[in-house]
Amino acid sequence: MRRDGAPVRQDGRMPLHESEVRLIDAAEALAGTLGADPDHTMAAAALDAAGRIHIGVNVLHFTGGPSAELVALGAAA
């Protein structure tokens, strides 16, 4: 059993909570809009304490550019 009381599946994997599924769905939906753009190749989603989802994509730049995770966190700020 997980610390939060959720059962562990027989195969050892933990089931996803609804909020985790929503995060994955949001990131996948955003990733699906990126197309073949070489400057935006990764999508991320972050969940805040109020349950809101913030999304972001990476920004490729010759200096490196921010990752999708940093962009999602910046969107939440």
Explained architecture:
This protein has 77 residues and is α+β, with helices and mostly antiparallel strands. The chain has a single domain (18-76), classed as Cytidine Deaminase, domain 2. Helix content is 30%, strand content 13%. The chain is built from two helices and two strands. It has helices at residues 18-31, 68-76; strands at residues 43-47, 53-57. A two-stranded antiparallel sheet has the order 1-2. A hairpin with a 5-residue loop joins β1 (43-47) and β2. 17% of the residues are buried. The model has no long low-confidence stretch (mean pLDDT 86). One of its GO terms (molecular function) is catalytic activity. This is Cytidine deaminase.
